[in-house]
Amino acid sequence: MNRKNKSTITLLSTAHFVLDSYSSFLFQLLPLMAAKLHLTPVQVGLLPSTLTITSSLMQPVYGVISDRYLKRSMSILGPLIAAIFLSSMGTADSLAGLMILVIFGGIGVGMFHPQSAALVSRAASEDGQGRNQGMVMSIFSSSGTVGYALGPILIALVVNRFGLENSWYTMVWGLAFWFILLRYCPTLETNLKSTHTASLTDALRAAWAPLTLLYFAVVLRSAVSVGVQTYLPFSLQSSGLTEMERSSVLAGFLFFGGAGGFFGGALADRLGARRVTLVAMLLAPPLLLASFSIDGTFSYALLLAGGTALNLPIPVSVVMAQRLVPGGASTVAALMMGFAWGAGALMTPLIGGLSTMIGYPHALMVISLLPLFSAALLWYYPKDQRVAHPQTSEALAVGD
User: How far apart are CA 264 and CA 134, in angstroms?
Assistant: First the structure.
């Protein structure tokens, strides 16, 4: 791999780290913003749903725009927009104002991913016939995971030191890296390719039954992941934890969840994608239930283990869908990661309503059972094939 491609991979992986650190600010700030703006649990639940819609659900749209009209603008502007709007959430003085900041911040997060993943994938495949593509895309994906996990700690440090209204100080590193991207980010040349719309439509139609099972299994898993990220800080706050303690627990949940996703692909290659996903969905509920049922250090250890199991199938689910429709790898990846994750996040206000009735810890215990329904759906999914299909790298690219 030549120096130019190595530089592209390093640059965009680092940008992914910076960008995704902003995308997890919201979960750490929610208890503080709820107190400041007097938000109900249902109103709190609207905010992660909105962020997920603009950052994940809309990614296929951003991808189409990127492919047709823009060569590098989205990779450059995404971190800038996210940094400006998501760092300013602490300054909001109304729910409407906070929603506007979340909407535009989510757009910045979402528009970066499709184009940047394509740039990294191209850099990895230009040398050596793509032999290192899977490893490179793992690095790109994991960089975002690490940034996402560190985000709550970074914003907590700034808010504790300077106050909630000065959360915009965190804009600094996003602006600094925007200048670097502006100078060094390469272009993504658009190529006119022959379309195979009819054959792809036929393939999707032929695989609709297992795809539907997989889709709803991912939706339920995503609902648990977003629900825990949203309401865990409230539960920890009611237990008397400080701001920094809450941020550390949340960061641990996010980091270990990302680690699970990183190793999920390797386990699936060895043991089978369906088998690994099914076992993970059976392991996550008892671990999470036990964590939310007790207090203390051991409960946090159980939480980290539960988060690892819960998020382990993220890239695996995309690979499963791609094996059903080998000729539509990008299409089914967008369906599984964009629409499925977004649909799961839309359940967050319902979890907020449940929290109002029975309290945060008990609501978290209830949603911890949802992966069992995912496992039930996966039981009817086609059993693992012995022939591996080479779509893993693209799955890792979108598995954020």
Answer: 13
- The DSSP 8-state label assigned to residue 71 in this structure reads S
Please count the residues of the chain.
400
What distance in Å separates the CA atoms of residue 200 and residue 205, rounded to the nearest whole number?
8
Tell me the pLDDT band of 392, cut-offs 50, 70 and 90: very low
Under the banding of pLDDT at 50, 70 and 90, the label for residue 376 is: very high
Fold of the CATH domain 199-400: Growth Hormone; Chain: A; (1.20.1250)
Global pTM value: 0.70
Q: Report domain extents, the chain.
A: 1-190, 199-400
C-alpha 362/C-alpha 218 separation (Å) is: 23
d(CA 125, CA 5): 9
Q: In this predicted model, what pLDDT tens digit does every residue of 48-74 receive, in sequence order?
A: 888 988 887 787 777 667 666 666 788
Contacts of 268 (CB under 8 A, 6+ apart): 276, 277, 316, 319
Q: How far apart are CA 267 and CA 25, in angstroms?
A: 31
Evaluate if residue 134 carries a pLDDT over 60: no
CA–CA–CA angle 338, 47, 348 (5° rounding) = 70
Q: Residue 257 corresponds to which tokens in the numbers above?
A: 């969840």
Burial profile 43-75: b = 16 or more Cβ within 10 angstroms, e = fewer? bbbbbbbbbbbbbbbbbbebbeebbeebebbbb
Six-digit token string for 98: 């906070």
Give burial (CB, 10 Å; 0-12/13-18/19+) of 360: buried
- Please count the other Cβ atoms lying within 10 Å of the Cβ belonging to residue 252: 18
How is residue 53 annotated by DSSP? I
CA 167 to CA 86: how far, in whole Å? 9
Determine which helix (DSSP H) or strand (DSSP E) holds 379, and give its type and residue range.
helix 370-379
Q: What percent of the chain has pLDDT over 90?
A: 34
Longest Cα–Cα distance in the chain = 60
Cβ pair 332, 325 in contact under 8 A? yes
CB 321 within 8 A of CB 336: yes
Read off the tokens for 49. 């749903």
On whether the CB atoms of residues 13 and 74 are closer than 8 A, the answer is no
Q: Which fold has domain 1-190?
A: Growth Hormone; Chain: A; (1.20.1250)
DSSP E strands, 258-324: none
In one letter, which amino acid is 270?
R
